[in-house]
Amino acid sequence: MKIRDFKLGATGSYPYGKLNDSDEGELRMAVAADHRDSVVKVMFGKPIAWLGLPSDVARDLAKMLIDKADELDKRKQ
Q1: If DSSP codes are grouped into helix, strand and coil, which group holds residue 46?
Q2: pLDDT tens track of the chain, all 77 residues?
Q3: Cβ distance 23 to 29 under 8 Å?
Q4: Where are the strands (E) in the chain, listed by range?
Q5: How far apart are CA 72 and CA 68, in angstroms?
Q6: Could you give the CA distance from residue 15 to residue 35 in angstroms, rounded to a whole number?
Q7: Whole-structure pTM value
Q8: Contact criterion met (CB below 8 Å) for 12 and 25
Q9: Which of 14, 7, 8 is closest to 46 using CA atoms?
Q10: Rounded to whole angstroms, what are the CA distances from 39 to 36, 59, 65, 71?
């Protein structure tokens, strides 16, 4: 998949089952280092109230956030 073809937001699927009545399903998101503003951006493609992640996916997200923060820090040096 090319980056420009990547669509953020709801996919309409529930890969881990519906967690509760407010669960709106799977969400495609992106994590990026914004060098101009010196921030790590997390983009969801839609307003969200909460995010539920299995432990392995939560660890993957944490690693992505740390990697992007490290990328920003390296540019400061």
Answers
A1: coil
A2: 455 667 899 999 999 999 999 999 999 999 999 999 999 999 999 999 999 999 999 999 999 999 999 999 998 77
A3: no
A4: 9-10, 27-28, 30-34, 39-43
A5: 6
A6: 33
A7: 0.82
A8: yes
A9: 8
A10: 8, 20, 11, 10
